[in-house]
Write a structure and sequence with these properties.
5 helices; Arc Repressor Mutant, subunit A; 46% helix; globular; four-stranded antiparallel sheet; 2 domains; 185 residues; Alpha-Beta Plaits; 6 strands; 17% strand; two-stranded antiparallel sheet; alpha+beta
């Protein structure tokens, strides 16, 4: 009876719990980085959004060293002392949908490789500079599509999955698309 051992059951449960914990940690560290970046302070006494993000970090048992690293990254420093760069990647999703991927990284080669791999795994591709940016207009809140597109339901599901996979990459801050996604998609 293959696959029915006690160890196999424990391994599967632990894998599911670890995957959820990793996802929670990534979300909270991103919230901490954004709170520090927007509040321009790494001190929770002077930054209320950072204070609430730190409360969420305590709720998911995020280790203190990961909190410190997230605060340093939000302030524009990295653990190795390298400067963080904000890079805008352009790509295409399923069905030729244009994507702008905003990332903050200390290693652009690693980040571009991660983004390229995620895009290719989901049926997309990384574009050259200028291949998609003309479809977007920059606003104080981010980027909005000049020419919003509509896609079929199955392509919308693929696109949502791709956006979720891209936002799970540690260095990716935000993903903008030429398709206006609604709650029903």
């Amino acid at each position: 009876m293959s696959g029915h051992s006690k160890w196999n059951n424990i391994k599967n449960r632990k894998g599911a719990v670890d995957a959820q914990k990793s996802k929670d940690f990534a979300q909270v560290t991103k919230q901490i980085r954004m709170a520090v970046k927007e509040g321009k302070s790494g001190d929770p006494q002077f930054n209320s959004t950072l204070r609430s993000a730190l409360d969420k970090a305590r709720a998911v048992n995020l280790p203190k060293n990961k909190v410190a690293i997230a605060i340093e990254r939000g302030l524009g420093k990295s653990a190795s002392g390298a400067l963080l760069q904000e890079i805008l990647y352009e790509g295409f999703g399923p069905g030729g949908v244009g994507l702008l991927i905003q990332a903050v990284t200390d290693n652009p080669n690693r980040t571009s490789a991660d983004i390229r791999f995620t895009l290719s795994k989901s049926g997309g591709s990384l574009g050259s500079p200028g291949s998609v940016s003309y479809l977007f207009e920059r606003t104080p809140q981010g980027f909005i599509s000049k020419l919003p597109l509509s896609v079929e339901a199955d392509q919308a599901q693929q696109l949502v999955g791709l956006i979720d996979a891209l936002t799970e990459i540690e260095d990716v801050e935000d993903v903008y698309t030429t398709v206006t996604l609604t709650e029903t998609d």
